[in-house]
């Protein structure tokens, strides 16, 4: 009951301050670009020690102060009941008009969401431990048998559908992992292709997909497979700034979640493709999609990330993408042949270990 | 090989016309509001017999004519290889510059998507039979055992994650169905609540969810459970015009897919909630979200659908919603208690069989 204890500590501390007739306050780590740095040792985004103090008797603070405590109280009840809910459910659960006033505790879900982020930073606990679930959307298959909530689930025996990855994967137990690596892809349609072709069976691996940015459950699952079974994690995205960004967030963390990089950054991730070299090698230029202004801006941002700045290989990718002024999708490989990705692209790239590093 | 035969017939017919030095043409059913009607007998949207003729030697037709044939050829190859791909994959697969010209077969995926719809209408085959998959995003759990691609899958033994519903469910075999009804909901977070509370176990039912409009795989799975096992299908959406529309499309079909209502309309679906009566009964008014103009317009459209016009109960719902000028989410029930939906709302409503009909 680590969570319960931490929340109780927070509450006791405030009560104590009240008893001693002090102005009750709490310390909240600052999460903003200025307080975030790239830690070379861990190769992840981390947060400085800087924190702000939030007090009850301060008209600018009181609202957030009370909201944070209300979220903490709601979270404690969830943990005690051993249930998990979406952040939208928690919002509805705790929203109320304060007794004998016309003041609403929350004007919108934005406020409770912010308070949840604060509570995560204050307690150092990820939201899964606060009784909250993130979006669950990811699919996996491969030669793996797990145990989850008392059920034994064989990821190689799930028909055409795969296993729907839940938002919290901490309590699953791996019974058997017969895989040499994991391919994570940003597109369900690509997963479908590989799954139907039983790629994971032929190549002894695990294939995992979600849509766009990897949800927390997917990231944690990748980290557990990487740490507990030393499996390489290969990331397959489109050749575009957004695909590269998906890889960046997965591997190095993001500013918003910098307090949780230790548990959410898949430091072992390697970028498999699509690369500028693939564009040339596999003749994908005829499937280019022209850049919009916003794509060019996004490259500008990526180029300046510390971790990409330090990499000649990545700077080369950005430079080539800039010169093309265009992007290309994974699925453009289908022009060669529908099963080209299964039969040629992935086996070739993985054999040659052609990663951008 | 029904698909192969139908596509070959289409092709043979065109070759024959060419041999006889006629202008090759094909007949395409017209799918537009004016050609669609509500069939009272089947209680679904259906299409009139009207069709247009598309010819090769007609500058206005030739492009679509060739595109439809290219899609047909691509589809035939997929069916022969017994693989299924996304419509994006097919686009990339068939796109090319016509030999000895500078003319691209396809300018964008919109064109091949349209040609796919035409081919569906011409052959009367749904896209799953043309080797194409739709978006696969849905989750299910319950006391059901199925067989899919040689694997036996127990929907009650999938841990916290459920089974990821594939886009094509025609080939799954039901081995055992111990359920009295199905609840279909438009929100994954609600599914998570019910799944964690093992609602399907306590109440002997199946719970199924997707995001927003039900994908084709979900619709077909609901229809199979309804037709093959006579299970009632209860639909749980927000109290808002979009939730009502999700129900409407699920049960009666949509204009775009009116040629496929027979295979895609879940005619047995019943609307469980959230209703205006729930708003009053469970005190949800304080969680109202104010209407925007677009919400009001949407109600105006819904009110005038033939099937809703014929229903006093639905007209009453629309009228009340209009008077509230507001909508309410399923999850506002969480304000009563996080598990209120599991312990009170659903059991009560299902016991009383309070459907809007």
Overview of the structural elements:
The structure is a homodimer of 357-residue chains. Chain A has 357 residues and is an alpha/beta fold. The first copy, chain A, folds into two domains: 2-23 and 58-133, Arc Repressor Mutant, subunit A (Orthogonal Bundle), CATH 1.10.10; 139-352, Dna Topoisomerase Vi A Subunit, Chain: A, domain 2. Chain A has helices at 2-19, 62-81, 87-94, 109-123, 188-196, 199-202, 216-229, 241-252, 261-264, 276-281, 293-303, 306-309, 312-324, 340-352; strands at 25-29, 36-39, 44-47, 51-55, 85-86, 132-133, 139-142, 144-148, 151-154, 163-164, 173-177, 181-185, 205-209, 233-236, 269-273, 289-290, 326-327. In chain A, a hairpin with a 2-residue loop joins strand 8 and strand 9. Chain A is globular, with a radius of gyration of 23 Å. Chains A and B meet through strand 5, helix 3, strand 8, strand 9 and strand 10 of A and strand 5, helix 3, strand 8, strand 9 and strand 10 of B.
List the helices and strands and how they pair.
The structure is a homodimer of 357-residue chains.
Chain A: H1 2-19, E1 25-29, E2 36-39, E3 44-47, E4 51-55, H2 62-81, E5 85-86, H3 87-94, H4 109-123, E6 132-133, E7 139-142, E8 144-148, E9 151-154, E10 163-164, E11 173-177, E12 181-185, H5 188-196, H6 199-202, E13 205-209, H7 216-229, E14 233-236, H8 241-252, H9 261-264, E15 269-273, H10 276-281, E16 289-290, H11 293-303, H12 306-309, H13 312-324, E17 326-327, H14 340-352
Parallel strand pairs in A: 5-6, 12-13, 12-14, 14-15
Antiparallel strand pairs in A: 1-4, 2-3, 7-10, 7-13, 8-9, 8-11, 16-17
Helix pairs in contact in A: 1-2, 2-3, 2-4, 3-4, 8-11, 11-13
């Amino acid at each position: 009951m680590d969570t319960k204890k931490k929340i109780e500590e927070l509450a006791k501390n405030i009560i104590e301050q009240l008893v001693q007739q002090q102005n009750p306050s709490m310390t909240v780590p600052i999460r903003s670009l200025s307080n975030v740095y790239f830690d070379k040792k861990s190769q992840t985004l981390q947060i400085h020690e800087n924190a702000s103090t939030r007090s009850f008797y301060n008209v600018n603070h009181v609202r957030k102060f009370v909201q944070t405590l209300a979220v903490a109280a709601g979270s404690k009840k969830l943990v005690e009941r051993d249930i998990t809910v979406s952040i939208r459910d928690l919002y509805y659960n705790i929203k109320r008009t304060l007794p004998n006033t016309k003041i609403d505790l929350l004007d919108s879900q934005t406020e409770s969401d912010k308070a949840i982020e604060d509570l995560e930073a204050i307690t150092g606990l990820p939201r899964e431990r606060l009784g909250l679930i993130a979006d669950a959307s990811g699919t996996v298959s491969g030669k793996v048998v797990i145990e989850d909530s008392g059920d034994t689930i064989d990821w190689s025996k799930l028909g055409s559908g795969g296993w729907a990855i839940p938002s919290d994967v901490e309590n699953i137990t791996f019974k058997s992992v017969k895989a040499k690596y994991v391919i994570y892809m940003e597109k369900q349609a690509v997963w479908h292709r590989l799954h139907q072709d039983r790629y994971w069976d032929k190549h002894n691996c695990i294939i995992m997909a979600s849509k766009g940015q990897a949800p927390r459950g997917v990231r944690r699952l990748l980290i557990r497979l990487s740490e507990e079974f030393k499996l390489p994690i290969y990331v397959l995205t489109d050749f575009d700034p957004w695909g590269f960004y998906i890889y960046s967030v997965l591997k190095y963390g993001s500013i918003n979640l910098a307090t949780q990089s230790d548990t959410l950054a898949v430091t072992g991730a390697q970028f498999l493709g699509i690369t500028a070299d693939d564009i040339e090698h596999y003749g994908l230029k005829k499937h280019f999609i022209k850049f919009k202004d916003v794509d060019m801006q996004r490259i500008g941002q990526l180029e300046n990330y510390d971790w990409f700045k330090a990499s000649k290989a990545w700077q080369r990718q950005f430079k080539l993408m800039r010169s093309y002024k265009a992007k290309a999708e994974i699925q453009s490989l289908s022009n060669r042949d529908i099963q080209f990705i299964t039969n040629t692209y992935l086996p070739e790239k993985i054999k040659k270990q052609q990663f951008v590093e």
